[in-house]
Design goal:
Layout: E1 9-11, E2 14-16, E3 23-25, E4 32-34, E5 37-39, E6 46-48, E7 55-57, E8 60-62, E9 69-72, E10 78-80, E11 83-85, E12 92-95, E13 101-103, E14 106-108, E15 115-118, E16 124-126, E17 129-131, E18 138-141, E19 160-162
Parallel strand pairs: 1-4, 2-5, 3-6, 4-7, 5-8, 6-9, 7-10, 8-11, 9-12, 10-13, 11-14, 12-15, 13-16, 14-17, 15-18, 18-19
Length: about 160
């Protein structure tokens, strides 16, 4: 857990089989996570919330029980060049006023939705490869999303827009 305005670098770690989430980032913390393997955790791979930030680059996040990455409650990370795949539920879940920039990630093969954006969230997605979801590539649900025009990524399954 990275909290209370903390920073730091987590690099080349193998984070797995934890009883909850692999990494939690909250309370204005802004760590850098790079070249990690985050997998097989009992909840999310990474959870970013309560104004948490962070830069996640070149990580492999896979086979977690819930979302590979969950962003909520004003979480606002930068996700770049990560591989987020084979989650038991979803790849990236952004909800409850979550934000963030997702660019050049490969998000694929998740059991439900590869990317879900919901509940007044406003992320920017740019140049991601989103493919081979078991259900929906990108689900946009109950969103006030100013940056939808920045969604510049090939998607192998159609969008599912819900009011």
């Amino acid at each position: 857990m990275v909290n209370k305005n903390s920073k730091g670098i987590l690099e080349k770690n193998d984070i797995f089989h934890n009883g909850s989430t692999g990494v939690e980032i909250l309370d204005n913390s802004d760590p850098t996570l790079c070249l990690n393997r985050i997998h097989n955790n009992s909840k999310n791979g990474v959870l970013i919330y309560n104004d948490g930030k962070g830069t996640l680059e070149d990580n492999k996040i896979f086979e977690n029980a819930l979302a590979g990455i969950e962003i909520k409650i004003r979480g606002n990370p930068i996700l770049r060049r990560n591989q987020i795949c084979r989650g038991m539920r979803g790849g990236v879940l952004i909800h409850d006023q979550g934000h963030g920039i997702l660019e050049e990630n490969e998000i694929f093969g998740n059991a439900l939705t590869n990317v879900e954006i919901a509940d007044n969230s406003d992320p920017v997605l740019h140049r991601n490869m989103i493919h081979d979801s078991k259900q929906t590539g990108i689900l946009i649900n109950k969103v006030v999303c100013r940056n939808f025009c920045n969604l510049d990524c090939p998607v192998s399954h159609p969008f599912n827009l819900r009011p």
